[in-house]
Amino acid sequence: MLDFAIFAVTFVVILVGAVLYLYPSSRRASGIPGLNPTEEKDGNLQDIVSRGSLHDFLVGLHDRFGPAASFWFGRRPVVSLGSVDLLRQHVNPNRTTDSFETMLKSLLGYQSGLSGDATEALMRKKVYQGAIDRSLEHGFPALLKLVEELTQKWLSFPPSQHTPLCAHLLGLAMKAVTQLSMGNRFLDDIEVLRFRKNHEVIWSEIGRGYLDGSLEKSSTRKKRYEEALSEMESVLKSVVRERKGESSSQSAFMDSLLMANLTERQVMEDSMVFTLAGCVITANLCIWAVYFLSTSEEVQEKLHSELQTVLGEEPISLDKIPQLTYCRQVLNETVRTAKLTPVAARMQEVEGKVGQHVIPKETLVIYALGVVLQDADTWPLPYRFDPDRFEDEAAKRSFALLGFSGNQACPELRFAYTVTTILLSSLVRKLKFHQIKSQVIEARYELVSTPKDDTWITVSRRS
Prior knowledge:
Strand 1 (about 70-75) and strand 2 form a beta hairpin. By secondary structure, this protein is of the alpha+beta class. It has helices at about 10-20, 45-50, 55-65, 85-90, 100-110, 120-155, 165-180, 190-210, 215, 220-245, 255-260, 265-295, 295-310, 325-340, 370, 395-400, 410-430, and strands at about 70-75, 75-80, 165, 345, 350-355, 355-360, 365, 430-435, 445, 450, 455-460. Helix 1 packs across helix 5 and helix 2 (about 45-50) crosses helix 3 (about 55-65). It has 17 helices and 11 strands. It has a 4-stranded mixed sheet. It has a 3-stranded antiparallel sheet with strand order 3-11-8. Helices cover about 55% and strands about 10% of the residues.
């Protein structure tokens, strides 16, 4: 099984950085067609930087060399897989210590959970997933309140006013994640703004600084990053101590971790992972979903009809969400069209094979998800936003194989789906979204795909 769905956050940069430290270098060629190193020390790093992102580099690589292609990270050979068929063939029995969580913690300098104890790692994973699910269940009223506040704000706008999606929906996601993960302390907007400032510095440097090595070359940026990380850790530790002293009936994400008898340090680390990933994935799923809906009146009306049929005039509830099948198709198509998480990666622990190609042990294997998500052989008319394509069982299976749905979907993405469904259930029943025709939207493909600039729409009341 391609058990990489938990890595749908696509911290390939983190994985690569950790791999260069955790594994010895190798000059063995994979035998798979691809690029020779541009430089002895850096491999094809400059080629990646010149293309603007790893995703854009992989698009060109697979256009030139086909669905299986190779290149070099430093002195390490890398194989990239860019088709559903090759991903289906790739069997990669990784150790639990090579998970996204471990790589992120390694990059952040964390030690707990890195001992390689498979039983402990599995226990921590179950606790982490359960904590997110429990926070959604108990925090559902808070999510409804946040969404209703945003809906009322948009209802107050005149039809000609341009609404900035990135600014508004990142704010919504930040409030949702901090309140559900850490509780009432983050009902205070000042606390959220402080948290957001540090979060943006950390995420930005993880997204670009570790890929091109520029963080190490700038003492000013490195100092700012380290200060932001230290301050964010201090806040998390402080909240852990506060929550530990409160009643066990509390239901924030942190409370579930504390009830599982994790140490304060472990709770802080898991909270860092959830807040870093959860905020950005949730925000960008909301942003892209609303934007794509603004480009299609037909899709909006079909979604509105389903919401009215299933919910009527009542607020959404957790038990109603599974009934919103077309809404899930809209979100699936949003993830696909936006290439929300464009790259994932695995270390080849044992020698493997895809097609006619052998992948040597200790080769870094890239899953070029952004390439696969717009492969015309898998997705007819791949650049068209068409939620109806997910009525087809083959499309659903391919999407699940890539780790974006089903039981293997990462918990942060499941959290984002729930928040975005609540958002659309409120906005679409009361408002229509309108595209600004002169606007050109460009995506920035880092760890999660996001618009390069704020994205604007106009809204009008439904009659």
